[in-house]
Amino acid sequence: MQINLKPIGVIKKSGKNSEILIYSEFEQVIRNMLSRTGKTAVEGNDVLVVHKGDKKDGHQLQVSRTTLLERAGNILKVGRMKADDDSVLDIRLDTDIQLH
For 99, how many CA atoms within 13 A lie in the half-sphere containing its CB? Predict the structure, then answer.
């Protein structure tokens, strides 16, 4: 079975961190994240990023957890990710609550 997914953005390395550029037609994804927190900013929260990982085999997906450091419009500055020029397929707040 083959499923074609349209990317909503791209990951770029940026110094010690990474940046996720969300394409303008998918800015609703960012607004949805904001509405779930009830805040105007989601900085400091962990996010899960689904992206195409292995360049050799374009059929593999990877899920990475990172911290959202800053938001500037449709650009999300996040902690360091092991990805560069990867297509982003989805991004969501990490709602995994750790109980100690």
Answer: 0
Structural contact between residues 7 and 89, judged by C-beta atoms closer than 8 angstroms: yes
The SS3 assignment for 43 reads: coil
- 24 CB neighbour count, 10 Å cutoff: 9
How do residues 14-41 score in pLDDT, each as one tens digit? 989 999 999 999 988 888 877 776 655 6
DSSP state of 44: T
Q: What share of the chain is helix, strand, coil (3-state, %, to 5)?
A: 15, 40, 45
> What pLDDT was estimated at residue 17?
95
Q: What is the pLDDT of residue 99?
A: 43
CA–CA dist 49, 92 (Å, integer): 7
